[in-house]
Specification:
Helix content: over 70%
Radius of gyration: 13 Å
Order of helices and strands: HHHH
Strand content: under 5%
Structural class: mainly alpha
Shape: globular
Number of helices: 4
Largest sheet: none
């Protein structure tokens, strides 16, 4: 799931970047360093984490680290929005 989904987003990041726009704006307000990156670059980095950690987890390489990276990458998309 992570590898195929990440690969798909890596190839076509525009739709997910547009959908993530409001969340990324709030992230930039909290972390000004993110202003250096476009929404598309952030979404692609997120996809790269999914591909790399998903593939390594499937191969049995550093499973705790991979599982932690994947779980952490899911937090922004699964937490309810703050008021």
């Amino acid at each position: 799931m992570f590898v195929s989904g990440g690969r798909q987003v890596w190839r076509s990041p525009d739709g997910p970047a547009q959908a993530a726009g409001p969340l990324l704006k709030r992230c930039r307000d909290a972390v000004p360093l993110l202003d250096r990156l476009t929404d598309r670059q952030i979404v692609r980095a997120h996809a790269a984490v999914h591909v790399a950690a998903g593939a390594a987890l499937a191969a049995g390489r550093v499973p705790t680290t991979c599982a932690t990276a994947l779980a952490g990458s899911l937090l922004p998309t699964t937490l309810p929005p703050l008021p």
